[in-house]
Amino acid sequence: MAEDQKLTKKQLKAQNFRKSKDEKTEEKKRPLQSEPKEPETGHAEPAVKKRKTRRGKGGKGKVDSNGNRFLVFVGSLPKGITESELQAHFKTSSPDVIRLRPDKNIAFLEFDGKKDPSTIQRRMDIALLQHGTQLKGKKINVELTVGGGGNSQQRLEKLRQKNDKLSEERATRMKALIQDSRAKKTSAEDESRVVQGVHPDRAKLLQ
């Protein structure tokens, strides 16, 4: 009985060893299971897109950002006109910038209001007085304009109102010049008549 019991213990030990070995082998054969991912609780913030700036790094141009740019349009320019010739023709108005478009025979005179606000209106008026003057044998057009380009109805209406007002101012100015010229002529004629009826020595004293 003791031997049977001893053998039984050995058998039990062998069985336990074999069982342990088999379990290890079985665990190696099992595929590794990936750990479950934690559910996303929050929404990822979308990447902020950078807005592209217009006209280079400064967005809108420096002149536009100031909002103090005043333009005068010059049309019907002779072919082959140069910027220096335009500068000489408009020297009395002293535009700050001249943008010449030789392909269209036009130009734009820019007046910077921030540079000298006290004289900008007078300088623009002087430039506008060049309307109808001769440049290299050709009569040019000088008109007010607004920046932005395009042919939108709002822009065209704004241009029409500006140039209508300019035409009225030109007519008023021309009428005043004619009246002033007539007054000076009448005054000169009256003085001449008075001098003619006076002794030469007396006339010299009156002069």
TrEMBL record:
Q: Which GO terms describe its molecular function?
A: ribosomal small subunit binding; RNA strand annealing activity; RNA strand-exchange activity; rRNA binding; snoRNA binding
Q: Which UniProt keywords apply?
A: RNA-binding
* Basic residues bias locations: 8-18, 49-60
**According to its record, what are the GO cellular component terms?**
90S preribosome; nucleolus; small-subunit processome
Q: From which domain of life does this come? A: Eukaryota
- Work out whether the entry's keyword set contains RNA-binding: yes
SUPFAM superfamilies xrefs: RNA-binding domain, RBD
- Region of interest: Disordered: 1-69, 148-207
Q: Where is the composition biased (Basic and acidic residues)?
A: 19-48, 155-172, 181-207
Identify the InterPro entries for this entry.
Nucleotide-bd_a/b_plait_sf, RBD_domain_sf, RRM_dom
- Specify one Pfam family: RRM_1
Per UniProt, residues of the RRM domain are 70-147
What is a biological process (GO) this protein takes part in? ribosomal small subunit biogenesis
From the Swiss-Prot or TrEMBL record, give the protein name: ABL142Cp
Q: From what organism does this protein derive?
A: Eremothecium gossypii (strain ATCC 10895 / CBS 109.51 / FGSC 9923 / NRRL Y-1056) (Yeast)
